[in-house]
Amino acid sequence: MAAPTGSPGPPRRSSIDGATSCGAPPQVTGVETGEDFDREGLARMLARSNTFLAELGRWHSTRPSRCERPADIVPQPADAGCPARRQGVGRPWRWVAVPGGTTAASAGPAGTRSAPSGATTRHQVNPDLPTSHEITGPSDLAPEDVAGSLSLRGAVSLGTGVMIGAGVFALTGQAAALAGDLFPIAFLGAAVVAGFSAYSYVKLSNAYPSSGGVAMFLRREYGLGTATGVFALFMYFSMVINESLVARTFGAYVVQPLDIGPSSFWVPALGVALLVVAFAINVAGNRVIQASEGVMAVVKIAGLGIFAVVGLWFVSATNFTNGADAAGSAGSIDGFLAAVAISILAYKGFTTITNSGGEIVDPHRNTGRAIVISIAICSALYVALSVAVAGNLTLSEIIAAQDYALARAAEPALGTIGLWATVAIAVIATASGVIASIFAASRMLAMLTRMKEVPHSHLGMPGTVRLHTMVYTVAFAMVLTILFDLRRIAALGAIFYLLMDIAIQWGVLSRLRSQIEARPAIVATAIVLDVVILGAFLWVKASADPLILYVSAAAIVVIVIGERLFMRSHTDRAGNMDM
Hints:
The protein has 579 residues and is mostly helical. Helix content is 62%, strand content 4%. It contains 17 helices and two strands. Strand 1 and strand 2 form a beta hairpin. Helix 2 crosses helix 13, helix 4 crosses helix 9 and helix 8 runs parallel beside helix 11. The longest helix is centred in the last third of the chain and has 46 residues.
């Protein structure tokens, strides 16, 4: 390149940059210039050109395609880098090798904090948090994550799969038994509570997408340790409880019209069979999951929508009463709030979507969008269906049917055809719910395993950690499906979920609200609603079914003590964890 007219200025030295972030090629920053080239200068220039071409060839043969992560490279935030990997609020990632093969996250855009080779690396999970929040642990991305393998529609299908599967099919009768004829309003109240809670999850998902979902959110809020492990396990167990709840609902809807034998045997047996099939679909991979969930989502939403419209057309005003003829505490404020607590299980499936953050397309936008879309679809559907059920059956009929209420509500309007059509939709919806729940729970447990928040054993099984956690999740769900009935399974799930949600909301309010730009008033309202609803639910259960409180308390104590002992097993006296 010729020098401009006038003074040629000092000659510029040539330099060859190494591979830049996101797999960019080496660049020549300049060549030696002057008025004339002598032979030695020309020879030096040709030698540098040859070196550059050699570097370019070596870069092209070793660069990761589409910014994929090599095994010894971890993501770091930088001012410029690969647009396909982003962390924080609008902050891009770049890939850097960490000395000693350890994993670390940068404390800011300037670079990394890494320990000497062989030492434990300390990293700050949020670049904007003060150093007191530094923790030791893995990256947010799991080795099995396939970025971009899940679409926005696929994520919505997963969310609605869990929500509808555990929604009106499993919980309508239980909500009616607690709230009387006000149970449609209880579903609406649960939608309001879920909306306030979802605000924090949307903010967290947009800022920190990860296949770990709630586990990673808790890690960002409380750091690695007992608190994160305990509350993450509450969420995990609520997910597994949800699987068994939906599996038993599947069995109940199949057994009733077929009259194939004693329900005490066939309901859990069919539930276990569904868990086996759902496990096989999850093992087949994201493409199969997305395809199956997409088809089932269309069928169940369309079918339930038709049922809601027809049911609303045939409602009888005489079936709407003040709830005075309901059993137990129905019709009281406590009963209504307890019904809201149970109905929240119909919405908690939106947390499933947070476990798709490592695989969904454009996770910083689509994870939160999928949560909002799923809640909006299910809220409209639940309210319409619950009103249709209340208008076609008396309260006593709904309570008597309980686990089978939706199918019974179809008979007055549509006869036998409506009964069988509802059963078919219920089978599809519950199958979809179990598939999606296994997807989310296994990913969350796998992330807890990598964070060394829970112990792990391969038990001689081949395959990845995620495959192992999938096996454990399904096995645990089978045990619950066999041992517990729907009413007690739902109660356990509600208690664990509300405790975990309070922890998530408090972590956002006290530690992350400025980083994720959350409004404190909304988060505080979510906490108050959770506390009030949980308190009312425990009060009602203390008089109606105290055994479930004893089981819940025992489970909480075991989780807390077990987690504390496990964390102490790999923590030194200074509080440093061997990760």
